[in-house]
Design the sequence.
């Protein structure tokens, strides 16, 4: 049927040359350029192959293009080993469909085969199609549940992100309030310390002014005594002033320990400094929990390809391949050992 469909399509359909059609001419195409995506007649094809930019383009005959088009529409009809050939028979030993070329190959030359079109009595209502249909539906249902869970988890991630963003914003606001409180306290401490340091300096200044004022008064007294003072007044002043001057000089000797330049600098706590220099404030912690999946029964079974009888072929034609071995009961390891070997039976 598939072969007849290809033959009918090949005979019924022709394609006009795209180049000629653009010039108002009507010529039948003989090939298809897969690079330019154009149908070309014989003269246009020759010119196309002579041009430098298209000399390496490959052409597909129109007959092959029909097969190519049909394969894209119904790829299941074509042989997996020879993609251009339609399947025509079923190999009972290897349990898969083959084409005429496969049958001539050494792999299937001696295999028993069934004609798909004449020997198939009920593939559409067979055990294989019903079993496969049930398995597909069970798998689809399971995949659907898993997809529902994945989409739910995907939406949950978006909501979790919103929560995290809110938490970050709250953290930032709390940080701002805390920093404002700390800055206010820091400025208050600066004012208190500044008042203390200024008081210390002002006390020294007042003390120095007072002592210098006393010295100035004594200098004036000396000038006056030298002009009009009596010996008794001068001796008495010298004795009193000498004691006062001795105290001044002792005070001067002690000043290097008490007179110091005061310089103020800001000192930030190391913990806060590390926060300012931190490359990251935080991150996302992922927690993974297992999801309970209801896997269909027999999902893990070892699946040997369906037998000819299970595929709906005439039961009278489906006797065991070997007298003492039925393909339905072949163990998987035995099947794997001979399924790819040439058949000589």
Sequence:
């Amino acid at each position: 049927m598939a072969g007849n469909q290809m033959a009918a399509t090949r005979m019924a359909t022709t394609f006009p040359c795209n180049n000629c059609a653009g010039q108002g001419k009507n010529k039948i195409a003989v090939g298809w350029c897969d690079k330019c995506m154009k149908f070309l007649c014989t003269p246009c094809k020759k010119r196309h192959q002579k041009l430098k930019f298209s000399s390496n383009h490959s052409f597909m005959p129109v007959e092959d293009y029909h097969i190519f088009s049909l394969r894209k529409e119904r790829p299941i009809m074509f042989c997996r080993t020879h993609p251009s050939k339609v399947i025509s028979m079923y190999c009972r030993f290897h349990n898969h469909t083959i084409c005429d070329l496969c049958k001539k190959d050494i792999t299937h030359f001696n295999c028993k085969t069934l004609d798909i079109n004449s020997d198939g009595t009920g593939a559409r209502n067979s055990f294989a199609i019903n079993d496969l249909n049930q398995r597909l539906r069970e798998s689809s249902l399971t995949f659907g549940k898993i997809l529902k869970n994945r989409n739910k988890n995907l939406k949950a991630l978006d909501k979790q992100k919103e929560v995290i963003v809110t938490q970050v914003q709250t953290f930032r606001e709390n940080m701002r309030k805390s920093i404002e409180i700390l800055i206010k306290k820091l400025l208050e401490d600066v004012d208190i310390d500044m008042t203390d340091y200024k008081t210390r300096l002002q006390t020294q200044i007042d003390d120095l002014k007072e002592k210098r004022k006393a010295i100035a008064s004594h200098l004036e007294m000396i000038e006056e005594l030298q002009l009009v003072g009596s010996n008794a007044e001068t001796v008495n002043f010298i004795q009193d002033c000498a004691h006062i001057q001795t105290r001044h000089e002792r005070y001067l000797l002690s000043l290097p320990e008490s007179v110091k330049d005061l310089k103020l600098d800001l000192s930030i706590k190391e913990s806060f400094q590390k926060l300012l220099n931190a490359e990251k404030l935080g991150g996302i912690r992922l927690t993974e929990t297992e999801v309970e999946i209801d896997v269909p029964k027999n999902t893990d079974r070892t699946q040997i390809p369906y037998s000819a009888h299970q595929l709906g072929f005439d039961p009278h034609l489906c006797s065991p391949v070997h007298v003492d071995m039925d393909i339905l009961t072949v163990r998987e390891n035995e099947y794997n050992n001979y399924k790819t070997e040439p058949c000589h039976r």
Remarks:
- The chain has a mean pLDDT of 78.
- The longest helix spans residues 127-228.
- Residues 2-130+299-338 form one domain.
